[in-house]
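Query structure, 204 tokens:
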């Protein structure tokens, strides 16, 4: 089961609205809560997630109401439905089983990565602004040039045939694809001195 288009639904009363461009989906998306925004950042930047769709469908609850699914996601060999719940709520009482497994996401989950979502929230605009230039060949070049641990600034210099913005955007794209790693993204704000390292697990 593959979802590619969000289900048609009205914006919830008094909700937020975030109009965004998804580099992974190559299309615009609209989200209606801050927690959907935080979750979207993770879906966009976790390399193991190959595709996703916002608001893919509804599920039926035992009380007769319908619950909107926040996201469908696709990994290499599995699909999952994601539903954001308030902290303290363990799960939903479904009227009937769903075809796909449901993972319940609570806002407290994002406390595990105090810097990761903030970092990627500032890094994703590079991918959007430079999306026409970020082809596979340029991203693979980053993987080849990052042959040892080095700073972001040093890697940008090795990619000196591009201007700095293009080089930085390509490095961020390589991070999002899992070609290279930057462990400090979970611990502190990114800077030009951020250490990037090869991801040998991604080598073919």
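Result returned for the query:
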């Amino acid at each position: 089961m593959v979802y590619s288009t969000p289900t048609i639904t009205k914006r919830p009363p008094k909700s937020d609205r975030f109009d965004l461009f998804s580099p992974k989906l190559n299309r615009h998306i609209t989200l209606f809560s801050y927690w959907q925004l935080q979750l979207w950042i993770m879906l966009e930047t976790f390399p193991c997630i190959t595709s996703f769709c916002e608001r893919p469908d509804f599920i039926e609850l035992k009380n007769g109401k319908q619950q909107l699914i926040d996201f469908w996601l696709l990994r290499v060999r599995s699909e999952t439905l994601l539903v954001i719940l308030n902290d303290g709520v363990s799960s939903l009482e479904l009227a009937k089983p769903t075809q796909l497994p449901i993972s319940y996401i609570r806002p407290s989950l994002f406390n595990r990565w105090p810097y990761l979502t903030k970092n990627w929230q500032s890094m994703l605009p590079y991918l959007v602004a430079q999306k026409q230039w970020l082809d596979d060949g340029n991203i693979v070049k980053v993987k080849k040039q990052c042959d040892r641990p080095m700073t972001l600034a040093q890697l940008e210099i090795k990619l000196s045939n591009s201007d700095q913005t293009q080089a930085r955007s390509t490095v961020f794209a390589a991070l999002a694809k899992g070609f290279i790693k930057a462990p400090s993204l979970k611990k502190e704000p990114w800077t030009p001195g951020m250490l990037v390292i090869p991801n040998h697990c991604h080598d073919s």
